[in-house]
């Protein structure tokens, strides 16, 4: 997963892009970068591996002069991990274009072949973002305009949409001209626009999540629509156009379950409220299935499940207790590359408060179960601390299929629920009983916030992928995501 932000203002934007990237850090901790353009049309940039606070030092910030720019935080989902994958990526023709991408193209191999054979463009990485950048650059360059207007840019986006399949929320900086944002036909990944009054003009921000707008003094204008492109030229004039032939909003439901900040609203749906409703629905299901349950306490697995767990406990009328204390200064366990490392890191990440477990029947709540590594370890810890029975509730349905749209999920065969029944998963993770949210309930909880959205991207639960897939795409991705393959790649 990745986070992107672009700002166009009257004065230097680097400090605000930096603060925005800090607020998007949860979307990617592998690499960070920023490029800004100054009044002479010169680009200033900095990108490197690591957390935002480590990538940008005062000496870098001093050089990042420019009143419009874009930034990126990266968390690899497809393609390798390394400095050459850090974004924004740059291509010098036409005009000099930098690009920051959140998502994943599902026909990038075919496009890479076309770029090489028909368009004679060299790609330096296997990153689909580099492919996307070159496709857009090629389509814009074909118009042979020295000074591109918004109309030229939107025409190039229309052609880009026709060629690219998959998920992409994108920001691009066109050197000397302005910043551009666009979303794929289905609007799978989020992208919102904010506005602020300057002295002489309106100032704009476009970002993966709107939670960062208020802290930078912006007000939310709206979300970018599926297939739409917006362009803010260097003088701050705002243009927008629908560039897709058949746009249909189908946002990724997992943003609401896990990825986004609770203080964000995505496509007009509050993530926080959606999570509360997830808790309510789970409570309702528990009451239906186990009307005489013997749950003594509800305990969240911090952090992403706390909102759902609190509401679940209220609706179930069972006390909510904090049974785990999170060490905030280590990364997410998922990020550790290999299984052994991952197992150890759960204990490093969460410390248990024994007194909340001793002699009790506890219901542990998590937002989702992926490999099952976290839940298994946590249940083990709960039992060691004297819990009588450990029940487990997942705010998301069983994850059975790999994600193709920009979320770092393991290969299908490494997902604990991929070929197990709920009972088998419960046994595998050591739970005395396990309840998953049903997909129908999950969709209800999210859709309630914006009934105009008729469909969501839910393929990790159903295996129904909503975009065309390139030849062998599924199998290639499955192969490249297995732990042993990742290990080999990293060693190389
Ligand atoms: P696992 O141990 O693999 O079952 O991981 C489950 C935990 O990982 C849950 O607590 C989720 O909060 C978290 N999680 C879910 N999806 C992801 C993801 N794509 N990247 C990192 N963590 C995740």
Question: SSE layout and pairings?
Answer:
Layout: E1 3-8, H1 14-23, E2 31-37, E3 43-49, H2 52-55, H3 58-63, E4 68-74, E5 89-91, E6 97-105, H4 108-117, H5 128-141, H6 150-163, E7 166-174, E8 178-183, E9 192-197, E10 202-207, E11 219-223, E12 228-233, E13 238-242, H7 254-259, E14 265-266, E15 269-270, H8 271-289, E16 297-300, H9 306-316, E17 324-326, H10 339-349, E18 350-352, E19 361-366, H11 373-384, E20 389-394, H12 422-429, E21 433-436, H13 439-447, H14 459-462, H15 473-480, H16 483-491
Parallel strand pairs: 16-19, 19-20, 20-21
Antiparallel strand pairs: 1-4, 1-10, 2-3, 2-4, 5-6, 6-7, 7-8, 8-12, 9-10, 9-11, 12-13, 14-15, 17-18
Bound molecules: adenosine monophosphate.
Adenosine monophosphate binds at residues 258, 301, 304, 332, 334, 366-375, 407-409.
What does this molecule look like?
Strand 2 and strand 3 form a beta hairpin. This protein is 32% helix and 23% strand. The chain has 16 helices and 21 strands. Helix 8 (271-289) packs across helix 9. It has two domains: 3-249, Aminohydrolase, N-terminal nucleophile (Ntn) domain (Glutamine Phosphoribosylpyrophosphate, subunit 1, domain 1), CATH 3.60.20.10; 271-491, Rossmann fold (3-Layer(aba) Sandwich). The mean pLDDT is 94. It has a seven-stranded antiparallel sheet, covered by helices on one side. It is α+β, with helices and mostly antiparallel strands and 492 residues long. Residues 258, 301, 304, 332, 334, 366-375, 407-409 line the site of adenosine monophosphate.
